Amino acid sequence: MADALSAAHDAQFTNDSIADIYQWLLARFEQTGIPATYAFVGAMTTPQETFVNDWLPQLTANPEHAAWLARLIQDIRDNQVDGWFVPSVLDEIQSASVPHEIATHGFTHLPMQNISEASLALEAAGINDWAARNALELKTLIYPRHYVDMRLLEAVPSLLGYREHPYNGKDPDLRIKLGNLAGEFYPFPPSRRDVSTLTRPAIIPVNFFLNWRAGARRWVPTSLTVQRFRHALAHAAKHDGVVHWWFHPHNLMTGKDQRALFEQCLALLHDAKESRRIEVMTQIQYLESKAPQRVA
Fold first, then answer.
1. Do β-strands 245-246 and 208-209 pair in parallel, antiparallel, or remain unpaired?
2. Between 3.20.20, 2.20.25, 1.10.1060, 3.10.450, what CATH number should domain 1-159 receive?
3. pTM of the model
4. pLDDT tens across 131-143, in order?
5. Which run of H or of E encompasses 104?
């Protein structure tokens, strides 16, 4: 959201509030024994001093990064960095009793839409450095803004696969956004067929975004979203399908009654898991369960 921050976000996104939402999420996953994939922007889970000393000079010298991070760069100069760097959340997830996966969501969240070789090399270097500093063995990737660029997979050799683009590679223009909103009112969404390409790079299917109850989406009834999720899980259980449930932690901070919606859907997921109708997996567990010899 570095390019779309508002005054309201400035008030909502603080170090404490971000740490709180991750602790809240971890507690619910601990209670249910459900593992999740956390895809982090590496720079934002790097200590501020490390970022400023080791990375800021390189990023400001690169035109694409300098433009993308203009707000962050100015906030650092103004010493207004509350809400930017929260490395503690990474430590808490690594020490959780439930085995969560930590994936990469880029180093600075720079969208990889026709970026230069220099910018891509800088992103890859940042990801590799972040992984090494935190003893992470990164296996899966969620591209920033979903723009797929295979060069990044080549530059981060530990990565086995990535989450597919939810809009078939197209920019989410007004037509697509309206279609997605209309889809939130359809009560019977199917699960996805498991048609992943399980050679490296493996492609992880994506289909169920937890409705973010902000803007026009706040008018989608909570009960309808819960019904949609219930049906998708039932369809997956019956047809050996896949439901990739995803959301952004900041959605839980800004959406109307968003935490209550999450908890209702999590209860459905927990019930389906406990009754052995479905198996809950992280992204890498999903890949390894399908063809470990082909993604190794």
1. parallel
2. 3.20.20
3. 0.92
4. 999 999 999 999 9
5. strand 101-104
